[in-house]
Design brief:
Elements (H helix, E strand, L loop, with lengths): L1 H31 L10 H23 L5 H10 L7 H29 L13 H6 L3 H6 L4 H22 L12 H16 L9 H13 L13 H21 L11
Helix pairs in contact: 1-2, 1-4, 2-8, 3-4, 3-10, 4-9, 7-8, 7-10, 9-10
Length: about 260
Amino acid sequence: MKDRISKEFIGEVFGTFVLILLGDGVVAHVGLAPRLAAPAYNWNTIVFGWCFAVIVAVYVSGGVSGAHINPAVTLALAFKRDFPWKKVLPYIVAQMIGAFLGAAAVFLIYRDGLVAAGMPNVWSTGPGSVFTSSFWGGEGAAATGSYSMVTAIVAEFFGTMVLLWGVMAAGDSKNLGLKNNLGPMLVGFTVLAVGLSLGGPSGYSINPARDLGPRIFGALVGTKGLFDGLYWLIPPVLIPAIAGPIGVVLYDLFISKQLPEGESE
């Protein structure tokens, strides 16, 4: 059992590392690209990049640990499925380590551009992020306004629930019979849908480790303002951790219980 947990721990570290390497990597690539002025920030590139980051990460580590790569998923599966509570803390620690290391790899790859740009926040969501300063900054801010923390909380709440609905459907053979080898595709496309449709107000963390691990790394390498106020703790960390279990409860209430008697779990 101890050996199994160790292997799963490594799987979660590696899977989350891949997630952040590709996810924060696309943010750095687009945010630092000299061909793009601030109003031309390409949000679609970001959300597609994160979509495929999730797909690759889940395919890479799914056979070892189940590829939770997200504390919200781990908590949800422990709360309403049969995932052992004793594995929750090791999984979350592994996800945090993987996210931190993924951010470190992005730093090594984009170091020249990051230093030249004054070490912008390509690491995490919320105020001060490349998304906020580029997409909502300048002319964009005058046209669209800005969002409050309360609105960001609502966006993260619904975004995380939608993510869990996609995760539950991807692994629910009692529903449409999705095969395991296609599950990562559905999860990735769910992240794509959340980013395209719900990501604007908060930058769609929907994953406490995805946001907090790189945020810690960013602070260590000199990105300013990452821990100003309480935003860093509430919308991208606490809200997904709460919304994940609620999402599973609602999936069971409105989907699992409505399946034909012979197909329900």
